[in-house]
Design brief:
By secondary structure, the chain is mainly beta. The protein folds into two domains: about 1-55, no CATH class; about 55-125, no CATH class. Helix content is about 15%, strand content about 35%. The chain is built from two helices and ten strands. The strands form four sheets. Strands 5-9-10 form a three-stranded antiparallel beta sheet, with no helix packed on it. It has a three-stranded antiparallel beta sheet with strand order 6-7-8. The protein has a two-stranded antiparallel sheet with strand order 1-3. It binds zinc ion (ZN). Zinc ion binds near residues 14, 19, 22 and 46. The site of zinc ion has 7 residues, from helix 1.
Length: about 130
C-alpha cells in the first residue's frame, strides 16, 4: 500500500515526508502529520509533489497559499482594487543579498538550486 503524508485540516497530500512544502506546514500546525492512503478522493498532491522536478510556477489565486507555504520568506501582497484592499500577489522577502520582490498574479516565480527565488513579471515572459 502506498502512503502519503497530510497535515491535519489540509486537502493536499505529500508523496514524500521530506517534501519542502510539508516541512513548513508541519511547523504551522504543531507537528501533526497524518499518514493516508494515496489517491484518496479527498486529497490532491501539493504543488511540489505533483511535479517534483518543477522549478517555475505562475502565481494564481488558487496556488497563492501553497507558494506562500513553500517560499520561506514570503507573505501575501495587498493592493487597493475596486475601492477595497485585496491580495494581488506574494511578497518574497529579501534573502541572500537579493532585494525584496513582489510577484503579482500571472507572474512567474522560479526556485533556483541555491534556494533563492526570482520573479519574472508576466509582461516579460517570453512566448
Ligand atoms: Zn508535497
Amino acid at each position: 500500500m502506498t502512503t502519503a503524508f497530510v497535515v491535519r485540516g489540509s486537502s493536499r497530500y505529500h508523496a514524500d515526508a521530506a517534501c519542502q512544502a510539508l516541512d513548513s506546514a508541519r511547523l504551522n500546525t504543531g507537528g501533526t502529520v497524518l499518514q493516508i492512503t494515496a489517491n484518496s478522493s479527498t486529497h490532491t498532491p501539493c504543488l511540489v509533489c505533483v511535479e517534483v522536478d518543477r522549478t517555475e510556477w505562475t502565481l494564481t489565486p488558487a496556488n497563492l497559499a501553497e507558494l506562500w507555504e513553500l517560499i520561506g520568506p514570503s507573505k501575501p501582497h495587498y493592493a487597493a482594487m475596486n475601492g477595497r484592499t485585496e491580495v494581488d500577489g506574494l511578497t518574497i522577502w529579501a534573502h541572500n543579498g537579493m532585494p525584496r520582490t513582489v510577484a503579482r498574479f500571472g507572474d512567474t516565480i522560479t526556485r533556483h538550486t541555491d534556494g533563492t527565488w526570482t520573479v519574472q513579471a508576466a509582461t516579460e515572459v517570453r512566448s
